[in-house]
């Protein structure tokens, strides 16, 4: 009897083979799962931890991204209640309605004390007949202008309210280029109140000329700053105030160039504005002609290729000390002066009535003068 003729016998043999194959497949699958669980996934995780190129370390990137996002979120939650909207209401003439009070502009502000003092930009409150402050909890309150300083573009206003959250000041002298910078403010007014943008500190001691002709040393950031952000907070990764946002370069050739007034300057100026209703600054009593370059020294035959050329103010402190027109200031109290911003910073770091030693070059001869600083009017 042949194999093909005995269907019953062959059918039993085939069934046995199928059963054995199923059992082998199940055992093989279980063994594969065991290997993947104990070895494969471990190897994959280790591979991700050390992998670079072609997408890099995906696991590490996800963790890094989540960590930074969580940090920004935590800072925003901590700081946002201290950021307010400031609306400038000014008198205006309408063709249809005649004289009336109208909104002139809107900006931001930062609560700096729990009794209601708020710092903002001078240009936000300038010309205001009335100032309205909007808080994070929805309250809208009228604010009183305490004082303003056009040189630094800072102003202090005050509201009468309870349950206020004041911001914590950081030390702008410790800020590092590349560290996290978070801007919080009201771009476009209340419609986008307390918007949060994040970037880094792009530069320090950036010299910007103000409308009043004063030079200011500012913090540069690429955190987005838009109209309405003026007066808002620039904070670090701890939620500490490191600057008050004040200006951005809006030219189409530039992208992400915003600037903030350093918090140490903000602290000093606001203290004066609250205490004296003005900023008390020392004055040397000179007008600056320009600063000396290597080209100037070569062309005019100066013995120095740095310094600031000045003309003493008539009857001022420098003239009283013996300084003359076109003296070149090269040092103050032994600290080298290369340009006008250094001279300004050195003098502003002193007190009214303090004596300083000013080293000048006149007719290529070096002379020292003791000047008693007056008060800048």
Brief synopsis:
The chain is of the alpha+beta class. 28% of the residues lie in helices and 36% in strands.
What count of helical segments does DSSP give?
7
Profile the largest sheet: 6 strands, antiparallel, barrel
- Morphology: globular
Output the CATH class name of the largest domain: Mainly Beta
The share of residues in helices is 25-40%
CATH fold naming of the largest domain: Thrombin, subunit H
> Roughly how many Å is the radius of gyration?
34 Å
Domain module count: 2
Q: Tell me the fraction of residues in β-strands, as a range.
A: 35-45%
Report the mean per-residue pLDDT as an integer: 83
Report strand order across the widest sheet: 1-2-3-6-5-4
By DSSP, the count of extended strands is 21
How would you portray this structure in words?
- With 377 residues, the protein is an alpha+beta fold.
- It has two domains: 61-279, Thrombin, subunit H; 282-375, Pdz3 Domain.
- 28% of the residues lie in helices and 36% in strands.
- It has seven helices and 21 strands.
- The strands form four sheets. It has a six-stranded antiparallel barrel with strand order 1-2-3-6-5-4.
- A hairpin with a 5-residue loop joins strand 2 and strand 3 (117-121).
- The longest helix is centred in the first third of the chain and has 44 residues, at 7-50.
- The protein is globular and about 90 Å long.
